[in-house]
Design goal:
The structure is a homodimer of 351-residue chains. With 351 residues, chain A is of the alpha/beta class. In chain A, the strands form two sheets. Chain A has a ten-stranded mixed sheet with strand order 2-1-3-12-11-4-5-10-8-9, sandwiched between helices. Bound molecules: 3-isopropylmalic acid (2 copies). The site of one 3-isopropylmalic acid has 3 residues of chain A, from loops. Chains A, B: Belongs to the isocitrate and isopropylmalate dehydrogenases family.
Chain lengths: 351, 351
């Protein structure tokens, strides 16, 4: 059978706990579908940073470039400033491999309840298409008159036509395969350079897709709408920062952060894509065996799908849904007393 | 009795509808408490812009400077680009009058229901303290290679020590009068210049307030938390953009956008402060008499409080709560069939 080379980077905190379980599930799905996953594990993490002064080796990106996929747990740990840990691993990988799409599907899974009152599962299914390579997350900026009364700090956002066009086009293509609706997050009333530009390109590209219903909404109003009227939202396209906020929010209004996967996708396939959970490393509950592995397992299913193993991906989804629906095995965040490993094993058994 | 000079700018859309009702209520409260409000109305709006090419006259700021308070409906109308309407009126007023605090209290009022399942009113009371004079909303930036394949757009965020210190200090002072808890919204993992600076000043100032419980939370996680676990939030301090998003969200998880007032406050009182609703001009329902005037009435109560008329402000609050609790007069967003004017008159009667 076919074999895929996967780089596994469990990272920190519960990233380690959930990755183990997800790998069990993915290996089982592979075995049933006649392919295999050849894992190589990397200890790149805040722990490594504390020992060596860097999150990954100098040739880290080069090493990863030889893989078919990257499976990331989570990075971040108290004592290591976030901007060090993230800009030393997660963000460089996203950028070096032109993973310009961050795809974050959310839906209310069976056996779970929404934080919102009186909403059905159908009203709570959407996908956030987040720009993942530029925008508000830029290295440009700095501090002037450090520590003085007249200190000023600048932080530049950088939007390019190439970057904005490709993410918006991706969202429209995706909408054609779903409900045919796209909503763009903007804030052109406050951010008068970047967002009018974003809106202009959105208008240009929506003209190419007369069959897709296109609308735009200010990010503040859109956040409110996710809570008050999520039913008319399906594909939501957003800049790096807005997509980050809206995808956490979308996860919260559906089944919670323990359930939401995230794909950092290089659509042309010249470079490996990377799959992870939306949640972070949650150091407070790390190593206790209580983290919910569902998001990481579903991230694995996204990876299988991306590798072309569509049926195996669907099976993993179905197995997760079966276990959640039965409700016998639930981690504490789902209201149960089961461990991370028990939930992982239940999904393996359901396969 | 004392008389206060108030500039009323109903603006556009439902701003006009709700301002009329709020004025009725405020005049009645004034009459009962032995003071008066001397209103002067300004037609500054998108309509004016369409006719004259500007939202307000050249000496608009100077005219407003002579008032004790500014009462704003809402600005914005289809056809007038948002960045024109807002930067031609709302934002210049905020900045010219150093209204560096945007105070947005939210709570679940009696007779209304939260979008969240199973939350009590006590869990849903908080106040967003939004920085209102700098940060992400800056005029600095521009477009390079317009329309070309290699087009680049820059948008600068500008944070100053003075600006960040004063808003964070305001939040801590406010927390002392409430539950003694402050949560700061950050995103230092993505925005590596501005937000580490914000966090540093937050840490400095929290050291001055050992009795206030200070924590920080990334804005994405904080948005999720407002939905999944709002109960431990009270004072939330945030930058201009984050405060904008979080305050709409906070309004949505409590009683909805029809209920949330907003004060643009110049704490030292050298300049007039401005009071408005969090919601916008909602052109789709304008002029139909169905807009909910509660947010605007409560904005009026904030104005009375700011003017020192604390008891009158409390009375307005109590009257609104009485009407909502009785539930006989409700606008469509509250599930009823009453008009804007009927709800306004009911509050007047309750006074
Ligand atoms: C209209 C817009 C510029 C404004 C803002 O973002 O400041 C509004 O959303 C608000 O919250 O007052
Ligand atoms: C950890 C952080 C830098 C990251 C981001 O904002 O991109 C995370 O929140 C995410 O959403 O993947």
């Amino acid at each position: 059978g076919k074999s895929y080379r996967i780089a596994s980077i469990p990272g920190d905190g519960i990233g380690v706990d959930v990755t183990v379980e997800a790998r069990k599930v993915l290996d089982r799905a592979a075995a049933s579908h006649g392919f295999s996953l050849s894992w190589q594990e990397f200890d790149w993490s805040c722990e490594r940073y504390t020992k060596t002064g860097s999150m990954m080796p100098d040739d880290g990106i080069e090493q990863l470039s030889r893989f078919d996929g990257i499976f990331l747990g989570a990075v971040g740990f108290p004592g290591v400033p976030d901007h060090v840990s993230l800009w030393g691993l997660l963000i460089p990988v996203r950028r070096a491999f032109t993973q310009y799409v961050n795809l974050r599907p959310v839906r209310l899974l069976p056996g779970t309840t929404s934080a919102l009152a009186g909403r059905s599962a159908e009203e709570l299914e959407m996908v956030i298409v987040r720009e993942n390579s530029e925008g508000e997350y830029s290295e440009i900026g700095g501090r002037h008159n450090r520590g003085q009364a007249n200190e000023v700090v600048l932080q530049e956002s950088v939007f390019t036509r190439v970057g904005v066009e490709r993410i918006i086009r991706y969202a429209f293509e995706l909408a054609k395969t779903r409900t045919g609706r796209v909503c763009s997050a903007t804030k052109s009333n406050g951010l008068i350079h970047s967002m009018p530009f974003w809106d202009e390109i959105f208008a240009e590209i929506s003209a190419e897709y007369p069959d897709v219903h296109a609308e735009q909404c200010h990010v503040d109003a859109l956040a409110a709408r996710m809570v008050q009227a999520p039913d008319r939202l399906d594909v939501v396209v957003a800049s790096n920062l807005f997509g980050d906020i809206l995808s956490d929010l979308a996860a919260a209004v559906t089944g919670g952060l323990g359930m939401a996967p995230s794909g950092n996708i290089n659509p042309m396939g010249e470079f490996p894509s990377m799959f992870e959970a939306v949640h972070g490393s949650a150091p407070d509950i790390a190593g206790q065996g209580i983290a919910n592995p569902v998001a990481q397992i579903l991230a694995g299913a996204m990876m299988l799908d991306h590798l072309g193993e569509t049926v195996a991906a669907q099976d993993v989804h179905a197995a997760v849904e079966k276990v959640l629906e039965e409700g016998a095995v639930q981690t504490p965040d789902l209201g149960g007393k089961s461990t991370t490993a028990e939930l992982g094993s239940a999904v393996v058994a359901a396969l």
